[in-house]
């Protein structure tokens, strides 16, 4: 009897092993791609971050030199990081609010809802470079549409991308145009549509107005969605690059010299791959820390329906 | 589950085995039949003969900037006619430092770079490749060259500019033969039709910077601006500074001189054009950029380099235009300093002798004459004396400005590209109106410039 059970167990193990191997074989293309194109380069860049590597020569081991230089000696490291944080602090809340507002509007079940949804979503399909070039013209001081509209209401528009004061707001504006109606809005819409109607009905019966319903029902119920969008928004905003590179190249006077631009310049203009890898890993650590902090804080304000 | 049930798992297993079996059957079906063996052997013999013929030809790969010149074909053909066993393959890349430099660096890193590559002092590609031993020295090859070739055929400063050794740029081995040489920003382009309409005399050789300013004021009005100076990074700022007799750093490239009174004077003169005299458009006033403004008649004059003779293709027949040399500054010089392009043999080339011969062809009299007829800016004084060039007054002026050009000077740490972006970032706030050229400003930027100069060599 014991022998029969043992034989049966071995049969199950062998077939389970075969199934596992078959499973790995089916997903092997993805695994190979991940190792070759993602994990492999990540490990390589981690090693390069500890070397002096100018592409053209063999990497020379430098220990912590690059990290020390970044944190202590690079006079552009902390300013570019501060500028990036400034961008995050302004663009992410505005983006979340804007996307939620658009999603709320789309959730009204009005006629032509699908047309509005398409119109709001279309800007997010514009390639970032094309959007940047478009907005260079829209924000042109003399002939741009934005300043023209402002002049109609008696406001003299600023030089936008040509001004140290207004360059970052201009880039935030460009980011809002492409980002507010995009995937974030769709995710918010899905979240809003997942809020049970009976909660609103009960609140209405109790005499709650729209604001109280929004504040006490909608926001808590979509807090996981807000949290998700916020994490992704922060991660994306910390890596702001394309718009600044195309519109201002980090100017005027380094007003839009963001961290990603600093990294790109060291990698592809100064060919300092070792130091650029260091900057990349420092950004990775910063994003990781940000995300972990948000995850920790989420217990206080994110409500998961059904959770204890 | 019942073992006899036809499950999804069994279906997938069966499909996998069926596919493998079909593949193996297909492979078996592709086996050559015995009757085709003879024909295959004949083909192999033919291929071997052709391969042997190809092996006798030597392939020279030449990396050149995209949008080369019509004379490129002639140059290559002439070399291949003289060397029937050589095939030259021209590989063009976009010329800007954002494209060409990384491309060549990647090829060098992958051990796949060609035999000859275009290099430039201005963009920093020469300095970067030289410092990283990617270019082959030419002195030994020149010393044993019995063809009569002499470096005296080129402007002397173009030869020293393409040397690099332990003492830095200007010392050591010659690493490229000069192809282009020009002064930065010594040219003044103006709308002749506008001048005639306003009854204003055209600029002359004897005029001064004050004359230029007065001219610009006379032509500024409405939505038209009189003059646009160059502003930007290291090359542009140094150009203005040199006209006042100043310098941005010490001769050894290690100490900042941005607080020097001559630097301040030059900078303030340019700043006044924008903000006090208001004869120059700010960046925010330039919808579409400089060329569209010039073509639209909204800009009367602008300064630039000789390469902007190409503006004739933009203007076409819309109006008459002309080019003269900029007036000298208070120091009695225009301020243009030498920028060089060269053709270099790569250190990885397996045909250095042939590559050197090709560089000589690329920069010989005939080649340079062809280039000069297209864009001017050549590195040989004898070409400017050619009868076909002497009848073109613009090219004659370019030759003059090249002869007068001051020495190139770069930072001792050889961070050429970084020096360009660093100075641009430091001076930009002046041109946007976000800063004033007071003593505090110069003290601040001088400290930052010194921090850059103190950086370790690349």
Keywords:
heterodimer; A: 308 residues; mainly alpha; MetI-like fold; two-stranded antiparallel sheet; flat; B: 458 residues; alpha/beta; D-Maltodextrin-Binding Protein, domain 2; four-stranded mixed sheet; 20 helices; 46% helix
Give the termini separation of chain A.
46 Å
Please outline the major beta sheet of chain B: 5 strands, mixed
Any idea what the CATH superfamily of the largest domain in chain B is called? Periplasmic binding protein-like II
SSE run of chain A: HEEHHHHHHHHHHHHH
> Into how many domains do the coordinates of chain B divide?
2
CATH superfamily annotation of the largest domain in chain A = MetI-like
Low-confidence sequence ranges of chain B: none
CATH architecture of the largest domain in chain A: Orthogonal Bundle
Q: Which radius of gyration of chain A do the C-alpha atoms yield? A: 26 Å
Oligomer: heterodimer
Average pLDDT number of chain B: 88
Most extensive interface: pair and counts?
A-B, 28 and 38 residues
What is the total number of structural domains of chain A? 2
SS strand fraction of chain B: 5-15%
What would the principal axes of the Cα set say about the shape of chain B?
Answer: globular
Write the layout of secondary structure elements.
The complex is a heterodimer of chains A (308) and B (458).
Chain A: H1 2-48, E1 51-52, E2 60-61, H2 65-73, H3 77-106, H4 113-125, H5 128-138, H6 145-152, H7 167-179, H8 183-193, H9 197-205, H10 210-221, H11 223-238, H12 242-247, H13 259-268, H14 273-301
Antiparallel strand pairs in A: 1-2
Helix pairs in contact in A: 3-7, 3-8, 3-11, 11-14, 13-14
Chain B: H1 8-29, H2 37-56, E1 58-65, H3 71-82, E2 86-93, H4 100-109, E3 116-120, H5 125-131, H6 139-143, H7 156-161, E4 163-165, E5 168-169, E6 173-174, E7 177-183, E8 187-191, H8 192-198, H9 209-219, E9 225-228, H10 234-243, H11 261-275, H12 290-295, E10 299-304, H13 312-315, E11 321-325, E12 338-345, H14 352-362, H15 365-375, H16 381-384, H17 387-390, H18 393-404, H19 416-432, H20 439-453
Helix pairs in contact in B: 3-14, 3-15, 10-11, 19-20
């Amino acid at each position: 009897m014991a022998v029969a059970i043992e034989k049966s167990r071995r049969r199950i193990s062998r077939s389970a092993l075969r199934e596992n191997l078959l499973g790995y074989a089916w997903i092997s293309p993805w695994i190979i791609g991940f190792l070759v194109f993602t994990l492999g380069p990540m490990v390589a860049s981690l090693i390069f971050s500890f070397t002096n590597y100018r592409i053209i020569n063999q990497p020379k081991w430098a220990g912590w030199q690059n990290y020390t230089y970044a944190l202590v000696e690079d006079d552009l490291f902390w300013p570019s990081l501060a500028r990036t944080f400034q961008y995050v602090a302004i663009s992410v809340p505005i983006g979340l609010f804007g996307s939620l507002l658009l999603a709320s509007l789309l959730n009204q079940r009005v006629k032509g809802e699908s047309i509005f949804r398409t119109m709001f979503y279309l800007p997010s399909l514009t390639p970032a470079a094309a959007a940047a070039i478009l907005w260079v013209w829209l924000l042109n001081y003399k002939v741009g549409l934005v300043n023209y509209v402002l002049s109609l209401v008696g406001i003299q528009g600023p030089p936008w991308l040509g001004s140290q004061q207004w360059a970052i707001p201009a880039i935030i504006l460009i980011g809002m145009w492409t980002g507010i109606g995009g995937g974030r809005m769709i995710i918010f819409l899905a979240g809003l549509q997942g809020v049970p109607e009976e909660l609103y009905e009960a609140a209405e019966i109790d005499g709650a107005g729209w604001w109280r319903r929004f504040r006490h029902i909608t926001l808590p119920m979509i807090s996981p969605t807000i949290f998700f969008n916020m994490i992704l928004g922060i991660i994306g905003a910390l890596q702001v690059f394309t718009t600044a590179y195309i519109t201002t190249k980090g100017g005027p006077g380094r007003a839009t010299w963001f961290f990603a631009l600093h990294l790109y310049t060291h990698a592809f203009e100064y060919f300092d791959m070792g130091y650029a890898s260091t900057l990349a890993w420092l950004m990775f650590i910063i994003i990781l820390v940000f995300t972990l902090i948000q995850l920790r804080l989420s217990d206080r304000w994110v409500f998961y329906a059904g959770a204890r | 589950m019942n073992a006899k049930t036809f499950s999804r798992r069994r279906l997938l297993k069966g499909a996998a085995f069926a596919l493998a079996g079909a593949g193996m059957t297909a492979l078996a079906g592709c086996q050559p039949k015995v009757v085709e063996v003879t024909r295959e052997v004949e083909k192999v013999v033919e291929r071997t003969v052709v391969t042997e013929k190809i092996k006798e030809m030597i392939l020279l790969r030449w990396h050149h900037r995209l949008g080369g010149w019509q004379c490129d074909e002639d140059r290559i053909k002439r070399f291949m006619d003289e060397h029937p066993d050589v095939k030259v393959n021209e590989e063009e890349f976009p010329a800007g430092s954002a494209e060409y430099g990384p491309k060549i660096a990647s090829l060098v890193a992958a051990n796949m770079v060609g035999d000859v590559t275009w290099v430039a002092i201005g963009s920093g590609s020469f300095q970067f490749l030289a410092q990283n031993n990617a270019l082959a020295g030419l002195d030994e090859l020149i010393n044993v060259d019995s063809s009569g070739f002499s470096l005296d055929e080129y402007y002397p400063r173009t030869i020293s500019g393409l040397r690099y050794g332990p003492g830095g740029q200007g010392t050591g081995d010659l690493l490229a033969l000069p192809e282009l040489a020009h002064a930065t920003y010594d040219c003044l382009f103006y709308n002749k039709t506008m001048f005639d309409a306003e009854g204003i005399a055209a600029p002359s050789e004897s005029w001064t910077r004050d004359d230029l300013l007065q001219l610009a004021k006379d032509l500024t009005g409405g939505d038209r601006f009189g003059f646009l100076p160059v502003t930007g990074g290291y090359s542009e700022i140094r150009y203005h500074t040199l006209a006042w007799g100043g310098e941005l750093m010490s001769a050894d490239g290690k100490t900042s001189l941005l607080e020097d009174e001559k630097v301040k004077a030059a900078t303030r003169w340019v700043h006044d054009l924008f903000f006090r005299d208001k004869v120059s458009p700010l960046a925010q006033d330039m919808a579409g950029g400089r060329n569209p403004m010039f073509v639209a008649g909204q800009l009367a004059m602008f300064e630039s380099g000789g390469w902007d003779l190409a503006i004739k293709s933009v203007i076409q027949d819309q109006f008459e235009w002309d080019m003269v040399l900029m007036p000298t500054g208070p120091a009695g010089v225009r301020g243009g300093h030498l920028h060089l392009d060269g053709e270099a043999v790569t250190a990885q080339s397996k045909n250095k002798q042939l590559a050197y011969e090709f560089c000589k062809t690329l920069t010989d009299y005939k080649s340079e004459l062809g280039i000069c007829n297209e864009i001017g800016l050549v590195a040989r004084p004898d070409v400017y004396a050619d009868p076909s060039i002497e009848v073109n007054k613009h090219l004659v002026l370019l030759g003059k400005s090249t002869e007068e050009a001051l020495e190139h000077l770069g930072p001792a740490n050889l961070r050429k590209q970084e020096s360009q972006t660093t100075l641009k970032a430091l001076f930009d706030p002046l041109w946007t109106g976000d800063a004033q050229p007071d003593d505090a400003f110069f003290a601040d930027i001088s400290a930052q410039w010194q921090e850059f100069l103190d950086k370790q060599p690349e």
